[in-house]
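Field log, afternoon session.

UNIT: design team B
ACTIVITY: writing a sequence onto a fixed backbone
BACKBONE:
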């Protein structure tokens, strides 16, 4: 890993991969409009192509390009470790198919003076419109503290709505086929009793499209199967650190067996559609 001295003490981290150009332009434009501009934009280029046009369009952004291509989880591992080893003080995470409020970085840094992790709200949108504003505020209060218990069986902490002090991050190592690497990453951080806070004063505009691994707010038979599969991997890995996850793993396996019966799967789908309002990532009532 070729480490360069950072120009700024704050890093904004993303991964770029082939996608619609309009998504990328939205992403860059929202960063170019940030009220706080003294940050380095760390881009892991996973087969996206040349960035010269974007450097020319957005000269205010100090782009640090990492050319690396592996599994999605390994890519995130490489990027986080690069940022940690480079000596940055804080990192703000953001997906390259999303966009952000102009105060995303400034408000995150303000809160990081007193907390170790900041989680901000998300508004769901697609090409046509924003269809759910401040989605997480339907379940969470502004300035609510977040602990491990809150995210044991679901997640609110993604790599597009979080900011972290680098002092609380050790060297990161992700299983190569891990899907919910963000859930695993923040679950491990919260095991160390760090202080995490939720804010609705900042919004990530979370784009809903076909390539999203984890959408929000929609249940289907396929999404239930996907959720159970993600939980199987997550609980198994987390059980190495916390025996409580053994219990969650066994319960999840029982549900897997249950939905082999098509009628039971349909019943579970109906139960969640009727009972779970504003579901969070990987959340399921069983």
């Amino acid at each position: 890993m070729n480490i360069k001295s950072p120009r700024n003490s704050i890093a904004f981290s993303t991964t770029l991969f082939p996608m619609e150009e309009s998504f990328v332009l939205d992403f860059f434009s929202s960063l170019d409009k940030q009220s706080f501009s003294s940050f380095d934009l760390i881009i892991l280029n996973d087969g996206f192509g040349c960035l010269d046009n974007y450097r020319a369009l957005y000269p205010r952004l100090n782009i640090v390009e990492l050319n690396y291509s592996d599994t999605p989880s390994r890519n995130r591992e490489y990027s986080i470790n690069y940022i940690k080893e480079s000596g940055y003080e804080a990192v703000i995470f953001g997906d390259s198919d999303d966009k952000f409020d102009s105060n995303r970085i400034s408000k995150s840094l303000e809160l990081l003076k007193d907390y170790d992790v900041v989680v901000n709200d998300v508004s769901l949108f697609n090409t046509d419109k924003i269809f759910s504003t401040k989605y997480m505020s339907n379940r969470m209060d502004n300035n609510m503290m977040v602990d491990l218990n809150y995210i044991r069986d679901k997640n609110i902490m993604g790599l597009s709505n979080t900011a972290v002090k680098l002092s609380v991050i050790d060297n990161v190592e992700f299983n190569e086929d891990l899907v919910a690497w963000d859930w695993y990453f923040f679950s491990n951080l919260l095991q160390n009793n760090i202080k995490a806070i939720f804010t609705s004063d900042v919004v990530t505009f979370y784009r809903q499209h076909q390539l999203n691994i984890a959408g929000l707010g929609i249940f289907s038979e396929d999404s239930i199967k996907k959720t159970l599969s993600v939980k199987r991997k997550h609980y198994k890995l987390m059980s190495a650190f916390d025996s409580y996850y053994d219990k969650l793993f066994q319960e999840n396996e029982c549900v897997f067996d249950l939905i082999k019966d098509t009628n039971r799967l349909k019943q579970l789908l109906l139960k969640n559609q009727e009972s779970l309002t504003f579901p969070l990532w990987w959340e399921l009532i069983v």
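LOG NOTE: Residues 221-275 form one domain.
NEXT ACTIVITY: expression trials, pending approval
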